[in-house]
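Translate sequence into structure tokens.
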Amino acid sequence: MKLEAVLWIVLLGSIATAIASPKYRKYCLIAAGIVMATIVAVVALTKRDEPVKSSLPAVPAQTPAPEASHADFEQLHIENLDKKDPEAKNRIALTEIRFDQIRPELGSDPGTIRLIRARLYNDSQRYALTDYAYYLAVQDCTASACTTVYDQRGQAAASVPPNQARDVVIAINDGYTRGVATFKILGTPKIELSATSTRAFVSPY
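Result follows.
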């Protein structure tokens, strides 16, 4: 039995005895006062030891996404280079850049895709490709139709001389959320990959 409960029983017993027995009323009232003071002290000490609860709702801690941070860094890097060489984004037309031999690399779970491999061709006759932005769409194809189940945009550095090609790897940025795959391929995967911007930075040296 908790101490507070015992004290309350003693307090009520003292008050009842004081009412029923005038002979011991004085002593019972003194005892009741002492017990009441003890109860107040115990309650005060208990409240003081309890942790203070905030009235504001708890905000879950968030871990910054490494892919988002990497994308922000790449964007800032490109913006700085554009200031130094404004013509870089005009030297190679989008029609001179193409992806071929696009193939997905499956993840550990059935129907999941971990990354995309492709060959990037630079058909420019004059300039080397140094950076590019892309749009990736993953489609799930069944006998009736193909449906886009995932897409992402990104930017990456490259080093593709004129009239040459290089193999590139594009990771699926959000492949899993809390250990569960964001999407799964139920039929046949179809990957669409296209360039959305190009850069051909020329070294000043």
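Note: The helical segments are 3-20, 25-49, 66-84.
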